[in-house]
Amino acid sequence: MNDSDNSTIARASAALLDAVNRSDVEAVAAVWAEDGVMMPPSKAAVRGRPAIEDYFRRLFSNARFRFQFTTSDIQVVGDIACERVTYAAEIWTGDASTPVQDRGKGIHVFRRRPPGGWVLAVDIWNSDAAGIS
After folding, report:
1. pTM of the full predicted structure?
2. CATH code of the domain containing 42
């Protein structure tokens, strides 16, 4: 395990979190591999950076988020890294003034991009609460 790799992956994950919290579609997309696959709960897989960008553009048009990762465990093996996270979130949809609270867990799979950067290749998550996706 390389501390530099772990730090770089942690920064990429933090950049994704910050971009989602700012509803910044371009910054979200910048973290992703061109052929990335996102697997949101109760939805079909979203394949490729353009589709992921479109997904977030539609999502952010009707919702705001405040996410935080409550734990993170990063394992690096060669050119692949896996980050296991738990999260807490507040979600405002439409004109709601009170957010929905959520907690859950997820897996981020990162792939090394020469000359040493990392991109998000796969993201899957789900809520610990019944009925929230």
Report:
1. 0.88
2. 3.10.450.50
